[in-house]
Structure formats: C-alpha cells, structure tokens
Amino acid sequence: MTTPTTTDTVPQTKEKSKKIKSAYKSLGKGSFYDGMITCSTFLGSVVNKVVWDYSKEENNLITEKALSGIEEDFNGKLLDVPVGTGVLTVPLYSILNDADITCVDYSEEMLNQAKEKAEKLKLTNVKFQQGDVGHLEFEDNSFDIVLSMNGFHAFPDKEAAYSETFRVLKPGGKFCGCFYIKGQCSRTDKFIDTLYVKKGYFTPPFETLESFTERMKKMYSNVEISNIKSLVSFICTK
Question: What is the CATH architecture assignment of 10-237?
C-alpha cells in the first residue's frame, strides 16, 4: 500500500494554511464545534449520524481509545497539537496535576477557547501558544507524549507534521491521537470531498487504514492502531 504524499510548493502550502486558518476562525468562536466533536448537542448528534454514521457511544469510544495512552498518574511533558478548543483534552488535564503540558494550535480563535476552558478549571500546569505543527519551536526529544486529536486530516503539510511530531518526541515516548481516514465509509468520504475539503476544514491527501498502519510501523517501535468506521485511533511508542 502506497503512503499518501504531497508535492506542494511552499506557496501552495502557505495558501492551504491560510484557508485552514480562515475556516477554523468561525468554528473557534461558537459552540457548534464543541457540540459536534463531542456529540453532546442535538445538532452535533445529527452531524455525527449523517456524516460519520456514528452514535454518541461510538464517538466517545474513539476519543477514549486515543486518550488511553495517557496514564492517570502521568507526570512528564506532554505536547497537545492541535489542541483545538480544548473540549476533548483540557478536562483531562485537570487530573494531571504533576504533568507539564503545552498546547499548540494554528487557529488563534480555537486557542482562545481552549485557554478559557483551562482558566475556568484553574489549571496552572498548562501553557498555550499559537504555532504550526510543521515547524514546531521545540528541541529534539522534548516530550514524553505527543497527542494529536483530529489534526492530521487538516494539516496542510502532513509530511512535515509527521516528521516534527516524531522529532520532538523522546525515545520511548508515546505518539497518540485520532483522525479521519478514507476508504472506510463511502458516505463519509463523499461528505469530506464535497463539503469539508471545499470549506477548508480538511486537507488532502488522506491516509487509508493500510497506509497509516504502514507509515507508523516504519517510524515507531510499537504500534497500536484501531478504527471505528472513518476515524482511526493510535498509540505508538518511539
């Protein structure tokens, strides 16, 4: 199975980045995104069923699997990229009191939503900064865990994102998260191609279950991958 690649020039990648930033600017300002991503509102449940063919239980399960790579007594350094609005991860950080957590997102609006959630929970061990996953401003081997929830289907330069998340992860560290893969549900694929890509929410090329598994096995020493329809979760050890 061939791993998806991109041959974009620097200007093309920058143009994609601008489109993504604009798309997520509106999502970061409202509550619709949180309701959709957690399947916790009526409209969010409708979107999950129509687009993803997901029940709330299935939606929660894929999140739980992705986050299961983080132990409850984790006290190391964690990078969350992209943190989004923080709806999936910031509540978890309230029990990781001894961890050193850095949250990065390209969208300032999304990042502000995550900051507000952290402030309401009075979290003091979580830092936020705007940044690009393709150009992470951290030293090699900086983090014990790199977490990426629903990011890789949106990143404009996926090769750079894979390279950078690997670079900043310590040997023996865990790379975990979840994202969209194509080829598992034709209805979902059609919505992605005709709506999500055009709106700038998602950016091709997209992994398949086979291509992603192949990629992770080449990069990481231990790989745990599972999917529920069009979302894949992973816990990979460097």
Answer: 3-Layer(aba) Sandwich (3.40)
